[in-house]
Amino acid sequence: MKGHEPAMRPPSPAPSPPSPERAAELRRRFAAEARAERPDLSLLCLLVAAAADGTLDEAGMDAAQEELDRLAGRLPYRPGGPQAWARALGELLGERCGFRGCAADYQRLQSSLLHEVLRRRRGLPILLSVVWMEVARRAGAPVYGVALPGHFVVGFGTPEGQVLADPFDGGRVLTGADAELLVVGATGAPLDASMLTPAAPLDVVLRILNNIRAWAAARPERSDVALWAVELSLLLPSHPARLRYERAQLLVQRGDFVGGALELEAYAEVVAAVDEPAAQRVRGQALAARAMLN
Q1: Distance CA 106, CA 246 (A)
Q2: How many CB atoms lie within 10 A of CB 103?
Q3: Mean of pLDDT values over 197-221
Q4: Where are the alpha helices (DSSP H) in 171-241?
Q5: Are residues 228 and 146 in contact, defined by beta-carbon separation less than 8 angstroms?
Q6: How many CB atoms lie within 10 A of CB 102?
């Protein structure tokens, strides 16, 4: 397509995490931002990315924010209603800049890291949606994320006049039938109106971390990635209690038997209030972890 900017997609291995000192500082900042009155979605995503990629320093994080600003500056000034905003974003980001996804992106950790998505112009639906949202927000668009089951998209306008766009498909504007097909394909169930509500920033971040955990779960040699993703998830004000159990298992898997046992015992205390037999099983796992020291 004429005027299309080439995507930058050199092959690269999965990144290595930062030093323990840098990782601790990133966790501190992530926790503080997650508890802010209005959490900054782009900053939280970049803190996640820095936890994954030890080469992403402060200058790199600033450069990613500046790229979002630059892209926003290329949008037309207030193009019109929700439909016009959706088409303007699709023309700029999807057509001219080449942001979109493909099946292979699900196999790359980089597809969940904001700075890499900005660089490669490829990513998972939710990260491409973050780019759409952050660029559109900077330009003054009425934009938000919509967490359809199995496929994250972007919404513009009010619920009554909502327009959906799919950044993974280059920003294609979705009809009601298109959205229905996405949901049926992912769940087998019909689209429900409750699925179209705006996703809160922290819910978006938790879903990103869930994707990273799923990537790592398929690669046991990358339990380091699974561990930091779980630990960041636990810093969110609202998170599934079972993440503590997952963290305990990862600690044991990585040879920290005492730390894993302590976490299992703490989780058992939480579970005991509602399911004593399950708590007993977890306590047994804690004993087995301690026995590995002998």
Answers
A1: 22
A2: 6
A3: 95
A4: 176-187, 201-217, 223-234
A5: no
A6: 9
Strand order in the sheet with 151-156: 172-174, 163-166, 151-156, 143-148, 198-199
Produce one character per residue of 168-202: b if its CB has 16 or more CB atoms within 10 Å, e if not. Answer: bbbbbbbeeeebeebbeeeeeeebeeebbeebebb
Burial (CB count <10 Å: 0-12, 13-18, 19+), residue 222: middle
Please state the pTM of the whole predicted model: 0.90
Q: What is the CA radius of gyration of the chain?
A: 21
Distance CA 52, CA 54 (A): 7
Q: pLDDT tens across 73-132, in order? A: 999 888 889 999 999 999 999 999 999 999 899 999 999 999 999 999 999 999 999 999
Tokens of 46: 């970049």
Q: Which residues, in sequence order, are bridge partners of residue 143? A: 156
The one-letter amino acid code at 116 reads E
What is the total residue count of the chain? 294
Backbone angles phi, psi at 180, to 5 degrees: -60, -45
How far, CA to CA in Å, does 32 sit from each of 38, 114, 195, 247, 279?
A: 11, 19, 29, 21, 32
289 vs 294 pLDDT, higher one: 289
- With residues binned 3-state (H G I as helix, E B as strand, rest as coil), the percentages for the chain, rounded to 5, are 60, 10, 30
